[in-house]
């Protein structure tokens, strides 16, 4: 009788154990998948807008299967730290300048730094969504990233605190903050100025304290970062078109089932044109506000700038970083 009691007791214990395991499994499968997104700009920056639109689109497509946390203002570090975090998997995703710190891993992203490669935004969109995406995607994967596409920063322009710039010659002798990439050093050198790498989240202070005379960024970045508070002159030269890349940890992406992968891909595809449209619409308003704030805005002699920078593409150090055949491919795609 006692043996029978013990057998029944053991069966009950085993049953309770199996039930508890089943409950834990149900709980674990119902947990949301966390995506931590690092951006260096403030809440109104182009990269943050891109991240927010991606979040909105993904949550719509997956019925809130993901828990997406966006960390703006460089809370998780500058661009290099954000990219390193994504590569290591401590951060699942980031939205960073395409030709800023990224070239340390994928040098051909510096194709966006070739001066006057794109005449219009439409040209840039066509290349980014076509030949550039196709060429760069496998290179991102080789480095442990999933490349989801690129949104907009906008055409880049110079600002400074020294003088009004009407021709390329007026840039001589200035110290200009640049992104941490060799092509930018070559660009500034070709204009007779000094290139100084400074992290974007440290740039306002560097300008305020006079560590550098000026910088170059799209209008939206200049306005939302409030550089007009510490810069007097804005030169609308539009030397390059800047994009922000949406980058995810490859292992994180590959571990998802096909439906969730497709949702992530489609969320990016839906968010990118939304972000581009908003930034373009905001730009006109921001430019007027920069003028109202007291900035002296000048449209310079663009021929002098293109003439001064025309040989950058041919420099040996640049050709080592950017496959010249890739540059030719981009140009041909726009013909």
TrEMBL record:
A Gene Ontology cellular-component term: outer membrane-bounded periplasmic space
Pfam families attached here? DctP
Superkingdom as given in the UniProt entry: Bacteria
Alphabetically sorted, this entry's keywords are:
Signal, Transport
Q: What protein does this entry describe?
A: C4-dicarboxylate ABC transporter substrate-binding protein
**Source organism of this protein record:** Fusobacterium pseudoperiodonticum
InterPro entries named in the record: DctP_fam, TRAP_DctP, TRAP_DctP_sf
Q: What processes does the entry annotate via GO biological process terms?
A: transmembrane transport
Q: Where in the cell is it found?
A: Cell envelope
The family classification in the record reads: Belongs to the bacterial solute-binding protein 7 family.
């Amino acid at each position: 009788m006692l043996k029978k009691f013990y057998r029944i007791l053991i069966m009950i214990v085993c049953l309770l154990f199996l039930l508890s395991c089943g409950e834990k499994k149900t709980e674990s499968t119902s947990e949301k998948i966390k995506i931590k997104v690092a951006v260096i700009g403030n809440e109104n920056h182009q990269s943050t807008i891109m991240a927010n639109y991606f979040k909105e689109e993904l949550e719509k497509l997956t019925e809130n299967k993901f828990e997406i946390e966006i960390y703006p203002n460089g809370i998780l570090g500058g661009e290099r730290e954000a990219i390193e975090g994504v590569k290591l998997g401590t951060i699942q995703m980031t939205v960073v300048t395409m030709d800023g710190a990224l070239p340390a891993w994928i040098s051909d992203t510096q194709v966006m730094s070739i001066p006057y490669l794109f005449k219009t935004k439409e040209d840039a969109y066509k290349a980014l969504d076509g030949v550039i995406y196709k060429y760069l995607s496998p290179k991102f994967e080789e480095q442990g990233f999933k490349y989801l596409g690129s949104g907009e920063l906008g055409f880049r322009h110079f600002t400074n605190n020294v003088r009004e710039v009407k021709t390329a010659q007026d840039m001589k002798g200035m110290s200009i903050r640049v992104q941490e990439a060799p092509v930018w050093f070559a660009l500034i050198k070709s204009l007779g100025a000094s290139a100084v790498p400074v992290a974007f989240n440290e740039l306002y202070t560097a300008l305020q304290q006079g560590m550098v005379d000026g910088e170059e960024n799209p209008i939206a970045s200049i306005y939302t970062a409030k550089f007009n508070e510490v810069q007097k002159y804005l030169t609308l030269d539009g030397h390059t078109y800047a994009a922000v890349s949406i980058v995810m940890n490859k292992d994180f992406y590959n571990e998802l089932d096909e439906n969730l992968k497709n949702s992530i891909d489609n969320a990016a595809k839906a968010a990118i044109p939304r972000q581009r449209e908003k930034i373009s619409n905001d730009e006109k308003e921001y430019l007027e506000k920069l003028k109202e704030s007291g900035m002296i805005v000048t449209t310079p002699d663009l021929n002098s700038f293109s003439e001064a920078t025309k040989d950058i593409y041919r420099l040996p150090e640049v050709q080592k970083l950017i496959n010249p055949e890739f540059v030719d491919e981009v140009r041909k795609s726009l013909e």
